[in-house]
UniProtKB/TrEMBL annotation:
Belongs to the bacterial flagellin family. It comes from the Bacteria. InterPro entries: Flagellin, Flagellin_C, Flagellin_N. Signal peptide: none annotated. It is found in: Secreted; Bacterial flagellum. Residues 3-139 form the Flagellin N-terminal domain. This is Flagellin.
Length: 583
């Protein structure tokens, strides 16, 4: 028997600690209702459960999103219901006005109601909102896209006129289509250099050369960022475009960039929208040959023309330096014996280029190559000595080609104007809806001119007269901005019936589209709720505790804990038996 270590008591104490730990764990699970309260309870189960929880929360929010989408659609559809009612009333009025039992005064009263109803359609279109977002003013119409068609047709540039010759660099035509209106305009880039030496004829295809045009109310500004093959950069920040009120034309001409478009071309260009054109062009510099070079130019020595002559050959003009030849038709050269300077001068006011310290004698050759001009001058004859060499040479210029990139048609900029509903828990699980412009002019029942074109029941195009004054407002004030259908005569009133039929069909088609989308969203909600329910059940099996089983576990741990306490008391009494041996 030993008394220093009570092994039975130690064992019982250890078992009692295990039982108490099990009982505490069971009590924690029963009090929280969760099987996993910390990662240590089930590490893998916790990770799986959290992923499921993210999906469940996403599905529940997507279901709420779809319900919000239905609310938005119902708002728009309710507004269109009123538009339908107005159009039906206008058709009734047009039918009434078509009856010749009405005199001019009667039709004038009918016209007043037609004007007011047309204005009310505008008001509905301009002011119907959901969460401050307008729904029927065209702002939720289909995508707005600018397409740049890059051409492979070579463009020729006269090397002596490259600074003023315009050519198109890989971005013509540029157009956008926004509903019924389309505009086309070309971007013309000057083929010379900007003020800092930036060369448009040699854009670096590896860099981003981008021209942006942004509308700011009634004006336009441009931005340009480009790099040429020599690493020279050109940046233009928010430069204002000019506007000619007499022609209604916007234009820009600065730093080698020039283009223009009319006010009518950009009528549907929204404020603050930017059109971006990517100029991805591979330009090539070339060398133009100077032809018609005279031979056997007299060599003057000491003021007297001797028998020495000169032959000039291999005259070239480098295309990269063509700016110095702006407007030049010919050039001449002189050698000054006093200063030993050889000078080539452009006759049309161009920049002089020169070389120094040269002495020419018979049989000697001058090889000239500076600032983009090069030629060989050889003196012949028997007499040698210093003197003045004079000659005039006509330039017969060659041309070079600027080659554009391969043929592609790519969107330069796309703005999605439709409304998108996130109807799934993950990325790319959305539904887009566009709502057309439902205002009077878009429905074809008002305009800004004297007449309006429409398609009759036979598919033929006809015109109907509009009122002579702007009696239709945008619905938010009393300022007339449009003209209504004129029902002051039998002919116009009968045509108005067809025009209004077309408008009613347009509204019906839009309401049908909205109704179909609403039905789709209702099915989406049912599917999302079902997915969320089943995923919640799966997550519950991992995370939630089985209360009955856990109560059984707690009862077992409680009994064992009490038993271990009793056995520990017994084990502590065993060393007392040693005292009997001493007695």
């Amino acid at each position: 028997m030993i008394i220093n270590n009570n092994i039975p008591a130690l064992n019982t104490h250890r078992q009692m600690g295990i039982n108490q730990g099990n009982m505490q764990s069971a009590m924690e699970k029963l009090s929280s209702g969760l099987r996993i309260n910390r990662a240590g309870d089930d590490a893998a189960g916790l990770a799986i459960s959290e992923k499921m929880r993210a999906q469940i929360n996403g599905l529940d929010q997507a279901s709420r999103n779809a319900q919000d989408g239905i609310s938005m659609i119902q708002t728009a559809e309710g507004a269109l219901d009123e538009t339908h009612s107005i159009l039906q009333r206008m058709r009734e009025l047009a039918t009434q006005a078509a009856n010749d039992t009405n005199v001019d005064v009667d039709r004038a009263e009918i016209q007043k109601e037609m004007n007011q109803l047309t204005s009310e359609i505008n008001r509905i279109g301009n002011t119907t909102e959901f969460n401050t977002r307008t729904l029927m003013d065209g702002s939720l119409a289909s995508d707005f896209e600018v397409t740049a068609a890059v051409t492979t047709d070579p463009t020729t540039v006269d090397v002596t006129k490259a600074i003023s010759q315009s050519f198109t660099v890989g971005a013509e035509p540029v157009s956008w289509d926004s509903g019924a209106a389309q505009a086309d305009f070309g971007i013309s880039i000057a083929g010379g250099e900007a003020s800092n030496g930036f060369d448009f004829a040699d854009l670096d295809a590896a860099e981003t050369n981008q021209l942006s045009i942004t509308r700011d109310g009634s004006s336009f500004t441009i931005d340009f960022q480009g790099t040429d093959a020599n690493g020279e950069t050109l940046t233009i920040n928010a430069d204002q475009m000019a506007f000619d009120a007499s022609t209604g034309t916007y234009s820009y001409d600065n730093q080698g960039i020039s283009f223009s478009f009319t006010e009518a071309d950009v009528a549907d260009w929204e404020d603050a929208e930017a059109v971006t054109i990517n100029l991805n062009t591979i330009g090539t510099d070339a060398t133009g040959t100077v032809n018609s070079v005279p031979e056997n130019v007299a060599l003057t020595i000491g003021g007297t023309t001797g028998d020495a002559a000169a032959t000039v050959s291999d005259v070239t003009v480098d295309g990269t330096s063509s700016a110095i030849l702006d407007g030049a038709d010919e050039f001449s050269f002189d050698w000054d014996e006093d200063t030993s300077t050889f000078t080539a001068t452009l006759s049309a006011g161009g920049t002089a280029v020169s070389t120094t310290a040269f002495s020419l004698a018979a049989g000697e050759t001058l090889n000239y190559n500076e600032n983009g001009i090069s030629f060989t001058f050889e003196a012949t004859g028997d007499t040698a000595g210093d003197g003045t060499i004079a000659g005039t040479f006509a330039l017969e210029t060659a041309t070079t080609q600027v080659t554009t990139a391969p043929t592609t048609t790519t969107p330069a900029v796309t703005e999605d104007r439709s409304v998108t509903f996130q109807i799934g828990a993950n990325q790319n699980q959305s539904l887009s809806l566009s709502i057309s412009d439902m205002r009077s002019q878009a429905l074809g029942i008002s305009g800004t001119g004297n007449t309006l074109s429409f398609v009759n029941r036979n598919g033929d195009t006809e015109t109907i007269n509009l009122t002579s004054t702007d009696d239709v407002t945008n619905g938010t004030n009393n300022t007339g901005v449009e003209r209504a259908l004129d029902v002051s005569s039998f002919e116009n009133a009968t045509k108005a019936i067809t025009v209004l039929n077309n408008a009613i069909e347009s509204v019906s088609a839009e309401r049908s589209k909205l109704g179909a989308t609403q039905n789709r969203l209702e099915h989406t909600i049912a599917n999302l709720d079902n997915s969320s329910e089943n995923l919640q059940a799966a997550e519950s099996r991992i995370r939630d505790v089985d209360m009955a089983a856990e109560m059984m576990e707690m009862t077992r741990a409680n009994i064992l804990s009490q038993a271990s306490q009793s056995m520990l008391a017994q084990a502590n009494q065993q060393p007392q038996s040693v005292l009997q041996l001493l007695g």
